Request: fold
Amino acid sequence: MNNVLNSCITCLLILFGVFSQINLAAQKAVIAGKVVDKETGESLIGVTIKAINTSGDIRGAITDYDGNYRIEVDPAPYTITTSYTAFTPQTVENFEVKSGVLNTLDFALGTESAVIAEVVVVSTTIKNTDASLIALQKRSLSIQDGISSQQISRTGVSNAADAMKQVTGAVVEGGKFIVMRGLGDRYSISQLNGITMPSTDPYRNSSSLDLIPSQMIDNIVTMKTFTPDLPGNFSGGLVNITTKSVPEKFTLYFGLSSSFNTQSTFNQQFQGHGDYSGRKDWLGFDDGTRDLPPILTDERNRALLSQSVYLNARNPSEDYNSLRALLNESSRSLSNTFTTTPKTAPLNHGLNFSIGDNLRLFGNTLGFSLGVNYSREYTHYENGAVNTWLNNSSSGLFGYQLLNETKSTETPHLGGLFNLTYKIGSSHSIGANVIYNNDTDIIGRSQNGSWVGQLSNPSAAYNTQSMEFVRRQYTSYQLTGRHVFNRLNDAEIRWSGSLNKSLQQEPDTRFFAYINYIDDSNEERFEINEAEFKPPFHFWRDLDDESQEFKVDISIPFLQGRSNTNQIKFGGLYSKMTRDFTEYQFLHNRHSDIPVSLFFNSFNGNFDAFFDYANFGIIDTLYKTDGSIQRYRLGYHYINQVNNKTSTTAIRKSWLDTAC
Reply:
């Protein structure tokens, strides 16, 4: 992570150094836009655009393979004309060109009729971003839907997952996972610039789309039926997110934001992690505070921590010195903090920074953009219902478990995007993308209520405390190319290669459950019954996914005519995915030799005293009359719950040829 941040800072300083030497006031005004086929929504290559001022001076440009053009002129009113074989010319008169802003003028050209007529528009700018996306849907061989950056900006959403809520047939679960057409997330695929995104959840196939900020998105298209050039492992839908490449003008943006949440802001009962918080929690990174203790990273040590290990550890024989040391150290190396600490939640806050422009380098266009965003949000609720009802009779439902929940979540988010695109002439380009996002949920949770379906004492109140740190990270490195060959009837080659890494880390989740009730002597009792629910435990989970992908598509038109869309398309896809998944769980163990003074009820609800390190490991030494050691007395310790099924490594390779 430090390398990524250092790289971003270095790039930022370089860009500031470059632009500090540019006198922006002396720049010419710019006319820029996009030209598409009105019928198909396809970009038109090679359209001649002319800008004519009142003195008759003419400046011109030709659209590239994306249909984009750019003309530098002096500020003044201009007449803008288009010229393209087999398409009706268009003219825009009295187009006022101003300096200091991007003067955008888009065109949607229709094919010529038998009688050629020129379309003249007086001082009107054609905005067709949404229209071209609709036209693309109409001519597509597959059923698809989508949302453009223009529509995303109008809705004001912050990330790709929120944007997908505007797409027909899409449902967003948990604020991040996409479900298409009512099918589970395992039937959907998410792609970034045509490259499949790995999941950051070990139990889901769908990727976390909330990791992609909305300001980085050019458009989102969902495919709902198969075509040969798409992966074949989806039946619900395929979501492809396209990020922005070449900015149309110099942009520099910096923003600070803050918001007030009536449930969490300034709430003094926000459930935090207290002394167990790390110095980097505000960034969404654990500083090592929650790492698995080194002594437990050794598989041989974990194998020795069985439920009966205390029987040998209390034996004074020197043969068990190493085992005794292992039990003692492991018992006291794990955190003894199992309850949340109230704190006051501040205002939600965030900042955004972005910079981008296009330059002329060796006679061609070089475009770049850099964006960094950070936010920290707090959510809290009380009196949440976590209930389980069973239909065990015809008379009604049975309240098996009825719990009242209080939950506090702190969510720091850090993300960045760096894009570099070099256009060679109007027909070739090479681009590179680096996308990084880190999203963390720091959760404190408490529950209380009844669990009559499980507890032997139906009048007892069941209580839980949990502390969670769930970090998700996504990094993508992409290299892409696009090449159009005008002499071969606009044949096109597109290729891309990517390295994608995603991870989900849950370091040292702690869970603590107990019951309390009033006994026959009218005194309150506290108990932990291992036969009815799990004793306190520590839990670690790590998921690391890495995917490598290379794709090439070749399209060859086979009929003449500028408006013709008939083509032969073929290509190939190579994909390799590697997944490493591990889980560790260590349960608090109360063995038969524990003295009554250390029983849970003996502490009368003083949880900090119960979990004190003095009650763990070797707590006393018993001697014989001759002064030799009879045995060691052991307190609480942890037993290993790891098995071979909780540590896996998987590799999947595939090669796919496509043709259509």
